[in-house]
Design brief:
This protein is of the alpha/beta class. Helix content is about 40%, strand content about 15%. The protein has 13 helices and 16 strands. It binds 5-S-methyl-1-O-phosphono-5-thio-D-ribulose.
C-alpha cells in the first residue's frame, strides 16, 4: 500500500524569507495530472476557492486561514516603514512595522480582506470558522508591531493545518468502530485526504477501517455535476490500494437492494444544531434510499463543521454554481441549447435520516449535538 494520504498535504504553508505562501494541490486537474500551485495573494486565494482548485470543507477552511495571512503580508509589504524584503522575515519580523497613524487603517483593510475571502463560497462553514480564528489573532495582536501580527497569523494557519490531520485520524478511529467486518461502504463526493489537509473525514473512516480489516470495500458515487467521486475519491483510494467500485449517482438503490452496501459514510459542509446536514448535492437522495433499505447513514466531520448558531438546515445557504457545470462534460455540451438549468451545489439531509455524526470527540446522535458540544 503506497499510503498516498501520508505522503501528500493537500494544502500547506511554505515558509520563505519573505514570510511564505500557500502551496496546494490543484484539484481541477485530478485525475489527469497531479500538480501543485503556489498562491501568494488574497485575490488568487479567493479565485482558488471559488474555482475549486482547493475544495472540501476542511481544506477550504485552511485555505481561508492562509488567505488571511497572505493578505497581512501583502499589506505589510505595501506600508512597511522598513524595506520588507531586507533580510529574513522570520529574523526581522518583531521590528518590522508601519507608521502609527496608518495602523488603524491597516487593521481595517485587513479585516475587509477577510470578509471578501469569506464570500468566496457560502456553504462550508469551515471557511468562516477559520477566518474567525484569524480575526481573534488580529484582535490579540493589535498592540504588537504589524510584523508580529503577520507572524502570528502565519503561525496560527500552520497550527490549524497540523491540527486538521490529527482531528481526521481521531474521526477515523471512532468511525472504524461502526464499520462491520467486510462491509461495503457507500460514499458520496470526496471527503478524503484531498478535501482536508490529509487523511480525510469519511475516507479517514474508510482508511482506519481498512487498516483493521482489509476486506472492506468502497462504492463511490460519481457525484455529478463536477464528478468529485469519480475523479478524486477513486484517485486517492486506488493510490492507497483500497478496493473501490465507481457507480453513477442513480445506481445506489440497486446496490442497496442487492445487499452490497452495509453502511453509508459521507462528509459535511455545515451541520445545524438539530443535526440537519448540508453536503454535496445528491447526498440526501442517498440518505433517503438508505433509510428505505434500513442501512445506517453516517456523517463524518470535524466539530468545526458544526454550526450551533443555526437551528436547522433551513438556515443553511446553498451555493448555486454556474450552469455550465451541468450542461458541459469535458468541454462538450450534453444537452439542447435553451434548456433551463438550476445548479445547487449542496443539499440538506434531514436529521431523521442520520444514524450518527462521527467527530474527533466521538459519535453523536443528531439530537445530542447542541447539548454535548456547547462550550
Ligand atoms: O463542492 P465541494 O467539492 O467543495 O464539496 C465537497 C463536499 O461536499 C464534501 O463532502 C464536504 O466538503 C466534506 S469534505 C471532508
Amino acid at each position: 500500500m503506497s499510503e498516498f494520504h501520508s505522503k501528500i498535504k493537500t494544502i500547506e504553508w511554505c515558509k520563505t524569507n519573505d514570510g511564505g505562501y500557500s502551496l496546494m494541490v490543484d484539484q481541477t486537474k485530478i485525475p489527469y495530472s497531479f500538480e501543485k500551485v503556489e498562491i501568494k495573494t488574497l485575490n488568487s486565494m479567493y479565485d482558488a476557492i471559488k474555482t475549486m482548485i482547493v475544495r472540501g470543507a476542511p481544506a477550504i477552511g485552511i485555505a481561508g486561514a492562509h488567505g488571511c495571512a497572505l493578505y497581512a503580508l501583502e499589506l505589510l509589504s505595501k506600508h512597511s516603514l522598513s524595506n520588507p524584503h531586507d533580510g529574513d522575515f522570520w529574523q526581522n519580523t518583531p521590528e518590522q512595522d508601519i507608521a502609527n497613524d496608518k495602523k488603524e487603517e491597516f487593521i481595517k483593510k485587513l479585516l475587509e480582506g477577510f470578509e471578501y475571502l469569506n464570500s468566496s463560497r457560502p456553504t462550508a462553514v469551515n471557511l468562516s470558522w477559520a477566518i474567525e480564528k484569524q480575526k481573534e489573532i488580529v484582535q490579540n495582536s493589535k498592540n504588537l508591531s504589524a510584523g508580529m501580527l503577520c507572524k502570528n497569523l502565519i503561525k496560527n494557519a500552520i497550527k490549524l493545518e497540523n491540527e486538521d490531520i490529527e482531528i481526521n485520524k481521531r474521526i477515523g478511529d471512532y468511525g472504524a468502530e461502526i464499520i462491520p467486518k467486510g462491509a461495503g461502504i457507500l460514499t458520496h463526493c470526496n471527503a478524503g485526504a484531498l478535501a482536508t489537509v490529509g487523511y480525510g473525514t469519511a475516507l479517514g473512516v474508510v482508511r482506519s477501517a481498512f487498516a483493521k480489516d482489509n476486506t472492506v470495500q468502497v462504492f463511490a458515487d460519481e457525484t455529478r455535476p463536477r464528478g468529485q467521486g469519480a475523479k478524486i475519491t477513486t484517485f486517492e483510494l486506488v493510490q492507497d490500494g483500497i478496493p473501490v467500485t465507481l457507480i453513477t449517482d442513480g445506481m445506489c438503490s440497486y446496490f442497496m437492494r442487492n445487499k452490497m452496501i452495509d453502511v453509508v459514510v459521507v462528509g459535511a459542509d455545515r451541520i445545524a444544531a438539530n443535526g440537519d446536514t448540508a453536503n454535496k448535492i445528491g447526498t440526501s437522495t442517498v440518505a433517503i434510499a438508505a433509510k428505505y433499505y434500513n442501512i445506517p447513514f453516517y456523517i463524518a466531520a470535524p466539530k468545526s463543521t458544526i454550526d450551533l448558531s443555526i437551528q436547522s438546515g433551513n438556515d443553511i445557504v446553498i451555493e448555486l454554481r454556474d450552469e455550465e457545470e451541468v450542461t458541459m462534460v469535458n468541454g462538450k455540451r450534453i444537452c439542447a441549447e435553451g434548456v433551463k438549468i438550476i445548479n445547487p451545489s449542496f443539499d440538506v439531509t434531514d436529521n431523521t435520516l442520520i444514524a450518527g455524526i462521527i467527530t474527533e470527540d466521538g459519535i453523536f446522535k443528531p439530537s445530542e449535538l447542541s447539548s454535548k458540544l456547547k462550550k
